[in-house]
Structure formats: C-alpha cells, structure tokens
Amino acid sequence: MLTDNVAHRALFTLPPVRVSAETTPVVQSLPPQRSITGDSEVDAVLWLREVIKTGQAGPIATALSAAKKIKTPLSDVEKRYTQILRQANPGNPFATFASIGFTELESLAERSVEEHRRRGETAARFDGETIWENTPAEAFCEKALKRCKGFKSYIDNDKAEVEKRFRRYGHLMPHTLADCLHELGYWDHLYKLRNAVGDRGDGMHEAIAREWFVEGLLAVIPPVSQAEALSVLAYARTADGIDQDKLIAIAENLVGGHAVAAPGNANFQLEACQ
Could you tell me the residue ranges of all domains in the chain? Predict the structure, then answer.
C-alpha cells in the first residue's frame, strides 16, 4: 500500500491547460481617470489602484512608477483619504475601512498579478462556465456521502460515519502521504481558481468533508521517505485548518514511521517535534 495510487491521482487532477486558451492575448483598456474626492492626490492614488487591479504587468509597472512621483508622502495621502471617508459617512464606524492599506500599492500589485494569472489559468483549464460545475472528484464525494447518517454539513456530521463511507471506495483511497498532499493540493488549487473568477461561498460540503478526512490521514499513513515526511510537516505548519493537537499527531506519525526512524535521521526527529 505504500506506493502511490494511480487511480486516486487521476481523479484528483484538474483538467489540463488548453494551450490555445492560455496563449490568447487579452487586451484590457485602462480605467478612466475621474475626480472622485476632489483631492487630486487622493484621486490619483485611487486611479493607480484601479490600474493595478487590472493585473496587467505593463500598466502595473507604470502605475508603481507614477506613484513614486507623488510629492506628498503616501502615508499623508492615506490620512487625508481616511478623513474624507469619515466626513462623507458621519457616524459610520466602518466607513474608513476602505482606507486600510490604501497606499500599499506593491502588495496590491502582487495580489492583482496572481489573481490575473489565476483567471487566465481558469479559462485555460475550464471552458466557459464549467468552472462552476461539479468536477469528477466532487461528484465522487457527493456519491460517497449520499444519505450518509448524521451528515448535515461539513461541520455538523458523524465523522466516524463519514470515514466509513470514504473507506468503502478503497480503490480511491490515498495510499501514501504523497497521495494525501496531492489531493489536498487539488482542492486548494480548485478553490483558488474559482475564487479568482467569482464567489461560490464555502463550496460543496461533501468535498470539504473529504478534504478534512484526507488531512486526518496525515496522522495515520506512515511516511515512505524522509523527504515525504518533511513535505507533510511543511504543509502542516502552514495549513489553516490544522490546530496544535493535529500538528502534534502528524509529527508523532512522521517520527514514528520507519522511514524517519532510520539511523542518521535523529536530527529530523528532533526538528519535527519543535
């Protein structure tokens, strides 16, 4: 069982990138400059933010260069924008939220470029609106948990019953920790592509239940190599849904596995527990 499951990998794999869609150039016109607040420098930053949000590398570089030519310190421009919002919305404590990070153009540029890349990848992998259709993996999760006893949502369910249902499909179970990371990467990638083009909320509850089930296997399946164990530990350290108890359980599984208990790996055992 400690060899990768080919059938599992095939199911939890996104459609391939279609080269023609990926390489088709998209020309996007720049947003028009407008007088919004009456403060020329605040309006300039507002416009630069709109340009940056297009995700186009060339206009973004020009916008970042133009921002450096604004004579007033950007921190002062942000304070003026905060004051404008406060005056325009008296008594609204949330009115100034729009000014948070107002002049952090570099970080906005990084996010915009990544979102633009993901939108392009979404179009290259999924035709039209098919990004919102259930993938074969999601259809499997729905089938596996159909009329599952006690299953109301990914939060409210009988975890033992959910595990039993997924284990019925042994041919689609992860065999290795690498299989687990592959599937977890699939779900993360799918969610990010969908978020780049719209908002689907939490997503399919059966799929999230599957994701959490597979994440739990990181504390069960023994590692086949030190490299695999280190990959799991790196994932566990940064995953949002893994609390301290789960992290400890995963670390105990990694250091208890035969692959990391071999002579010469004592340093790894110590590091994994830190």
Answer: 6-14+135-273, 40-125
